[in-house]
Amino acid sequence: MPEPLFRKIDNLLLKVDDLDAALAFYRDKLGHRLIWRDEEAAGLALPETDAELVLHRRVGPESDLLVHDVEAAFQRFLEAGGEAVEAPFDIAIGRCACVRDPFGNELVMLDQSKGPLTVDAEGYTTGVEARAADHGPTPAAAERT
């Protein structure tokens, strides 16, 4: 049996029209701690996992699945009988691709090859921290660039 392609659920991404109103709801009323944010998106903690709830002004809803290497995972998925929806592209923390399984389910795969987001004292993103070669777990950021 081959090694599993998907490592874990990285995040649940929800599209919101008003990021501040969404933060008022999910953070202030429902109690999810802000991990990071920028002008387009915000990541909130889910207390029993390192997966995040991501609120995004441009994309969603989707669930993002973490892989070691998007290029290799994309190719493996296609060779297994899946199809391409969107070829690998850059995101703030690494690479991302969208695929469809033989049953019509669209999946988003991402890696964190560029490293975790860095944030200031208020949680606003300030950049990306250089990453070691292990591509281990880091905070999710599904922001497409």
Walkthrough of the structure:
The chain has 145 residues and is mainly β. The protein has a single domain, classed as Roll (2,3-Dihydroxybiphenyl 1,2-Dioxygenase, domain 1). 14% of the residues lie in helices and 38% in strands. The strands form two sheets. Strands 2-3-4-1-5-8-7-6 form an eight-stranded mixed beta sheet. The radius of gyration is 15 Å and the shape is globular. The relative contact order is 0.21.
Entry summary:
This protein has helices at residues 19-29, 70-79; strands spanning 8-15, 34-37, 41-45, 52-56, 62-66, 83-91, 94-100, 106-110, 117-119, 125-128.
**Average pLDDT over all residues:** 90
Structural class: mainly beta
What do we call the CATH topology?
A: 2,3-Dihydroxybiphenyl 1,2-Dioxygenase, domain 1
- Provide the CATH superfamily: 2,3-Dihydroxybiphenyl 1,2-Dioxygenase, domain 1
- Return the string of H and E elements: EHEEEEHEEEEE
Helix content percent band: 10-25%
Domains (count): 1
Instruction: Report how far the terminal alpha carbons are from each other.
Output: 36 Å
Supply the number of helical segments: 2
Largest sheet: 8 strands, mixed
* Gross CATH architecture: Roll
Oligomer: single chain
CATH class: Alpha Beta
